[in-house]
Amino acid sequence: MKYDIGTKEAPLALKTPPLTSDYTMHLDVKDGKEVLVCTVGKTVLLYDVRCLADLHSMLKKHGDWMDLGSADEQKPAKEGTVEAWGRSETNPVKGWYGLKKGLRGRFGMYIPPLMEHLDLAEVTHDAKGNKMRAKS
Asked: What is the reported pLDDT for 67?
């Protein structure tokens, strides 16, 4: 599937689910593989672009709202959350969708707003405890 996510020269501007922080996302190629490049201030995170289709599919099967549960890589993810799924050995890539060692977490913070922008999901925008669900 092809996504309109922006380029290095013209990245997509997004906000975290609580709408408190700005970040950008664009598509790039690293080691011959398409990746999502998420830039938060001076920090650059990389995610496997496949996470978009895989997360959408999982959310459709889940069928209801799911907690985001965002957490840094070094912290455990709360069970049953988008974050936990994004690093689980039972997901389609058998582990982390985050590709940069030490910065593989925060999947539940930065991928859901992109999914919402692409019209693949609905995301709540509360101060805490945000959730998402698939759009058909």
From this structure: 98
Q: What totals of helices (H) and strands (E) does the chain contain, helices first?
A: 3, 7
Token readout for 79 is: 């069970």
Cα 135–chain centre separation: 16
Using CA atoms, how far residue 97 sits from 52, 53, 100, 128, in Å, is: 10, 12, 9, 23
**Stated pTM of the model:** 0.95
Mean pLDDT, rounded, for 110-114:
98
The residues spanned by each domain of the chain are: 12-134
Map residue 108 onto helix, strand or coil.
Answer: helix
Which whole number is the average pLDDT over 69-91? 97
Integer Cα distance of 136 and 126 in angstroms: 23
Helix (H, G, I), strand (E, B) or coil at 15: strand
Closest listed residue to residue 59, CA positions, set 34, 78, 77, 85? 85
8 Å CB contact between 109 and 129: no
Express each pLDDT in 43-60 by its tens digit: 999 999 999 999 999 999
The structure tokens listed for 83 are: 């974050």
Q: Which helix (H) or strand (E) holds 52?
A: helix 51-62
